Amino acid sequence: MQEHGGNKKNIFYIVYHYWMKNSSKTVESSEHKMRTRAAYYGFKITPMTPERIKNWYEQPIRQPLNLDKKKTPKGQLYIIPNRCKECGFCWEYCPENVLSISNNFNNKGYRYPTIAEGKENACVNCSMCTEICPDFAIYTEEVKDA
Questions:
Q1: 139: left (phi over 0), alpha (psi -120 to 50) or beta
Q2: Considering the domain 73-143 in this protein, what is its CATH number?
Q3: Of 4, 8, 87, 146, which is least surrounded by CB within 10 A?
């Protein structure tokens, strides 16, 4: 152990103070490097103020330049009601909320998914329902535009 001013210091005390003494240099140097690189490449770095953090999710989302040329894929849903066991994965995880639970029952006594009202053409053929269904009771096929 090292003695300093009559007090014994343990290794944790020494390491902590060494780190505190040298960590500010590391932060300053990395911040300096970041600002130097930003200036070189023409970026503007703005500090994160509480107001910016509050409005973080209201900022416009970046979009590809050729978004108007891209077409949203379309899909056709096929449901096999008698295979369904009402696990609910398909209507729970559908990103477009195309599926809803039916009021009718299949031969096994389970309610099966149906296409929600007003969402007949909303399927984007992501195949999430096909991949997640444990009973293979639902699948999609891509619809080609003419």
A1: beta
A2: 3.30.70.20
A3: 146
Determine how many CB atoms are found less than 10 A away from the CB of residue 113.
25
Report the distance separating Cα 110 and Cα 101, nearest Å.
Answer: 10
pLDDT in tens, 9-35: 667 666 666 666 665 555 556 667 777
Asked if residues 75 and 100 have their Cβ atoms less than 8 Å apart, the reply is no
Q: 0.90 exceeded by the pTM? A: no
Under DSSP, the state recorded for 15 is H
DSSP state string for 30-84: HHHHHHHHHHHHT-------HHHHHTGGGSPPP--TTGGG----EEEEEE-GGG-
